[in-house]
Amino acid sequence: MQDDTRERILNMAEALFAEQGFAHTSLRTITTRARVNLAAVNYHFGSKEALIQAIFSRRLVPLNRERLNRLAELETGAAPPTLEAILEAFIAPTLKDPADTDPGEIRFMRLLGRTQAGASRPLREFVHTLYAEVLDRFGGAISRALPELPQPELYWRVHFMMGVLSYTQAGTATMKLVSDCDPPGAEDQAALQRRLIPFLAAGLRAPLG
Amino acid sequence: MQDDTRERILNMAEALFAEQGFAHTSLRTITTRARVNLAAVNYHFGSKEALIQAIFSRRLVPLNRERLNRLAELETGAAPPTLEAILEAFIAPTLKDPADTDPGEIRFMRLLGRTQAGASRPLREFVHTLYAEVLDRFGGAISRALPELPQPELYWRVHFMMGVLSYTQAGTATMKLVSDCDPPGAEDQAALQRRLIPFLAAGLRAPLG
DNA sequence: GTCTATATCCTGATAGAC
DNA sequence: GTCTATCAGGATATAGAC
């Protein structure tokens, strides 16, 4: 084992954190299940907190780079992109076809959803820095697509949008009770996207109250 | 101290859990800050887990009863209630004027928002049971207000709605970055409600993708 | 009902041999 | 880089006097 150890820790920690949360997952459990020595965590990462940050950086940096690339490509055209196209650039990278996607990536989105709402302040702030550029660029693009929307209104509606996305990513399936139809399996992410975009676009475009 | 002790524990635990999360808040901290003996928690509640459930029952049972009362009153009229009226019946009990409201109630809504996304499965299931009737009744009312909306679509849109509400209740203020205007203070809950209802109503009514 | 004192366990982190 | 062994602290829960 050499650098493989690092990856094994990252993968197992990510999976366990997504299932049980940070506080209820001990370094002992992680290292045992990853068949790695307990001391390896502190050797490779320095602390549990640093391990958590490494997990977020590993997934979030490429994800947000792809979002920015998609948005940049949309903006090369002559006409400004539609609201729906902007939303798709933001959402699509998180909802890829599971067949040809690292399953860890899907687990991570669940972890991310739970973290946005529930994590400790320092961790939320760290995640925030990883999101800063994306929120800035997409906020601007949405504002240009909805020029008549006042700034504070835009602020809140983007906040609401983040709520929908992170809650959906968390996959809590709150609504098992509202109807008898089962929630669609996580397989058809494309269907989920076809539902998310009209809902969000309509909400963002709603007439002022 | 008699039954006062119970209340003191509940109030302090609620405040500390909302700030720091469940796992990072020890019974020692709670009892010390509440100026109550450590053993009192186990005498009055039996365990930390049972204390957490007691906190949720105390606030959620009356809250959901008020929601159901408001909905029942809406449905006494001849015409079926509008979508906006249904949403207001659901949301208004959580956004009361802070001036004449127990501040603990407001803290609790933050705790609830964080819990929906981030808590352990057993706790989420417990909260779920406290929500079952409300989700069933409001799901039906929304369905009657939007008769052309297919069931699975309804299911997901109500799910999205819960995401917006719980994320907003969690008060994570993700969007500090999207614009330069500060997020409005938590005082003007009425303004927040005036923003939430048009956003949600538009999303629920969105044309199918 | 309240308190002191303590049992039992598990945590993150580290020192130091290999 | 990997391992064993261990430290120091904090957790929940309880036994038993008052």
Write a brief caption for the model.
2 copies of one chain form a homodimer. In chain A, 69% of the residues lie in helices and 0% in strands.
Mean pLDDT of chain A: 89
The interface involving the most residues is between: A-B, 67 and 68 residues
Task: Please state the structural category of chain A.
Answer: mainly alpha
Task: Output the helix-strand order of chain A.
Answer: HHHHHHHHH
- Describe the sheet with the most strands of chain A: none
Low-pLDDT runs of 5+ residues of chain A are 173-181
Coarse shape of chain A: elongated
Oligomer: homodimer
Notes on the structure:
Two copies of one chain form a homodimer. The first copy, chain A, folds into two domains: 1-46, Arc Repressor Mutant, subunit A (Orthogonal Bundle); 56-205, Orthogonal Bundle (Tetracycline Repressor, domain 2). Chain A contains nine helices and no strands. Chain A is mostly helical and 209 residues long. The first copy, chain A, has helices spanning 4-20, 27-33, 39-44, 48-74, 83-91, 103-118, 121-145, 151-170, 189-205. In chain A, helix 1 (4-20) packs across helix 4, helix 5 (83-91) packs across helix 9 (189-205) and helix 6 crosses helix 8 (151-170). Helix content of chain A is 69%, strand content 0%. The longest helix of chain A is centred in the first third of the chain and has 27 residues, at 48-74. The interface between A and B is large, with 67 and 68 residues. Chain A binds a DNA duplex (18 and 18 nucleotides) through residues 1-2, 5, 26-28, 36-44, 47-48.
